[in-house]
């Protein structure tokens, strides 16, 4: 059996945590391949190494020199090696890193050095081989993962008893370092799992798996023992941030299960994320509830919209022109709404979009609703149980909340409702109480 383990920033924060990582790996011979993140916060007011590296880039842009932020990065790694008590010349490695930054002073290269340094140190601690993701993880010219990555990694891992791969980055078509989006070490872990032909991808973090709801809203929500790839995708997209939402794609194609585990409570069961072929319905109507605030809804109404060929295309062309993506597109026979992250509409963009849409498609009516929160109620059980929608909307009505928008996917896997930002927490609490029945 082969397990690929990814350890997040909290798991790599200090010597005690990294020693715990080593104990977890050494406890199971199947844990052969590791992917590590840059060290995270050691305490509440601490700064993550990746954030220090972004500060390093900004300082370099302004002064042309590496300053206080990079000094803090070096201090973190010197402390880490000292706490681990390993015989390793971290000073020489940091000196080489400084030289390399001046040679490739890009934002991506500098940001990637946290994972690189953490990977080298972890490999030294475990007596494992270090694999630099720059040599094995490749991106195409348009920024997508190059499929050649799987072949390169497979060759690099072949015959190795144990290896550590640096997360978060690879190389673009020109050979320069390119990073995934924040949290991208999750993606690297999934890519390594597929390349290694792993039986299981373990993602180690500081929580014991997925919870059915945000614990900041609901006190001690239920633990999710298992969910499908599809459920994970919906919940991660809507704000359940235990795992990067894009990390499922490499393992889904190979039907490799994911297990979320807690580095600080390794005895906890965790959460299994499974392909549909291995997923067994657990009996619950709803698997989880997640949501996000601060969306804007652009609503249009026009008689005979359905018979006007190219109507949607023309509206979308306006969004495309301005580089705006939409989250959802609820529609009726004569109505259509675009749900857009409000961050994309700052600086007068919203007003400009509305004017151009009016000129292009001449809607009979057009309204804008700001400060909207979206809440996703997710679960394979919703299609198996009669009256799920009735229960959902009765719960929301009983909480005295007006629903601004409804969107249900054709798969019946989720129902998304839009409410005013101010009603977000109240709505989540009411929905959780209805489907899980616990005291809130």
Protein traits:
alpha/beta; 440 residues; 5-stranded antiparallel sheet; 15 strands; 38% helix
Question: What's the SSE blueprint?
Answer:
Blueprint: E1 3-7, H1 15-26, E2 31-36, H2 49-63, H3 68-84, H4 90-103, H5 107-126, E3 129-131, H6 133-136, H7 148-157, E4 163-166, E5 169-171, E6 177-179, H8 185-196, E7 200-205, E8 226-228, H9 229-237, H10 248-253, E9 258-262, E10 271-274, E11 288-301, H11 311-321, E12 335-341, H12 349-361, E13 365-378, H13 388-398, E14 405-408, E15 414-420, H14 424-436
Parallel strand pairs: 1-2, 1-7, 2-4, 3-4, 7-9, 8-10
Antiparallel strand pairs: 5-6, 9-10, 11-12, 11-13, 13-15, 14-15
Describe the structure.
The longest helix is centred in the N-terminal third of the chain and has 20 residues, at about 105-125. A hairpin with a 5-residue loop joins strand 14 and strand 15 (about 415-420). With about 450 residues, the chain is α/β, with parallel strands linked by helices. It has an eight-stranded mixed β-sheet with strand order 3-4-2-1-7-9-10-8, sandwiched between helices. A five-stranded antiparallel β-sheet has the order 12-11-13-15-14. The chain contains 14 helices and 15 strands. The mean pLDDT is about 90. The two termini are about 40 Å apart.
What's this model, at a glance?
With 440 residues, this protein is α/β, with parallel strands linked by helices. The protein is built from 14 helices and 15 strands.
The sequence of SSEs as H and E is EHEHHHHEHHEEEHEEHHEEEHEHEHEEH
The quaternary organization reads as single chain
Which residue ranges are poorly predicted, with pLDDT under 50 across at least 5 consecutive positions?
A: none
Count of DSSP H/I helices? 14
Helix content: 25-40%
Label the overall shape.
Answer: globular
Average predicted confidence as pLDDT: 92
By secondary-structure content and strand pairing, the structural class works out as alpha/beta
Task: State the total count of DSSP E strands.
Answer: 15
The CA-CA distance between the termini, in Å, is: 42 Å
In order across it, which strands form the biggest sheet?
3-4-2-1-7-9-10-8
Largest sheet: 8 strands, mixed
């Amino acid at each position: 059996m082969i397990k690929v383990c990814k350890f997040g920033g909290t798991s790599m924060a200090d010597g005690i945590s990294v020693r715990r990582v080593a104990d977890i790996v050494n406890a199971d011979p199947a844990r052969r391949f590791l992917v590590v993140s840059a060290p995270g916060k050691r305490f509440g007011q601490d700064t993550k190494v990746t954030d220090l590296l972004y500060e390093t880039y900004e300082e370099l842009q302004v002064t042309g020199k590496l300053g206080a932020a990079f000094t803090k990065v070096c201090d973190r790694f010197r402390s880490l090696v000292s706490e681990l008590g390993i015989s390793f010349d971290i000073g020489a490695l940091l000196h080489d890193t400084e030289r390399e930054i001046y040679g490739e002073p890009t934002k991506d290269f500098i940001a990637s050095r946290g994972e690189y340094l953490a990977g080298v140190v972890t490999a030294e601690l475990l007596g494992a081989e270090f694999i630099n993701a720059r040599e094995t993880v490749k991106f195409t010219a348009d920024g997508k993962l190059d499929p050649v990555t799987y072949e390169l990694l497979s060759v690099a891992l072949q015959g190795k008893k144990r290896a550590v791969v640096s997360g978060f980055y690879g190389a673009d078509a020109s050979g320069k370092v390119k990073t995934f989006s924040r949290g991208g070490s999750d993606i690297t872990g999934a890519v390594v799992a597929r390349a290694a032909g792993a039986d299981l991808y373990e993602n180690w973090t500081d929580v014991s798996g997925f919870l059915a709801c945000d614990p900041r809203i609901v006190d001690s929500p239920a633990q999710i023992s298992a969910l499908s790839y599809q459920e994970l995708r919906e919940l991660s997209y809507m704000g359940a941030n235990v795992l990067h939402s894009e990390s499922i794609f490499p393992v889904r194609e190979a039907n490799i299960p994911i297990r979320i585990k807690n580095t600080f409570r390794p005895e906890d069961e965790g959460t299994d994320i499974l392909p549909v072929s291995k997923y067994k319905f657990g009996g619950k109507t709803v698997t989880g509830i997640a949501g996000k605030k601060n969306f804007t809804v652009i609503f249009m109404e026009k008689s005979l919209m359905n018979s006007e060929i190219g109507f949607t295309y023309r509206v979308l062309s306006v969004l495309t022109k301005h580089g705006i993506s939409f989250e959802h597109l609820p529609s009726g026979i004569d109505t259509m709404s675009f749900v857009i992250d409000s961050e994309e509409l700052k600086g007068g963009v919203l007003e400009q979009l509305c004017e151009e849409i009016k000129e292009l498609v001449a809607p009979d009516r057009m309204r804008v609703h700001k400060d909207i929160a979206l809440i996703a109620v997710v679960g394979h059980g919703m299609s198996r149980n009669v009256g799920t929608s009735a229960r959902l909307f009765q719960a929301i009505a009983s909480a005295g909340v007006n629903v601004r928008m409804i969107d249900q996917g054709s798969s019946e896997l989720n129902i998304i409702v839009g409410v005013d930002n101010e009603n977000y927490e109240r709505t989540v609490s009411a929905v959780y109480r209805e489907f899980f029945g616990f005291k809130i």
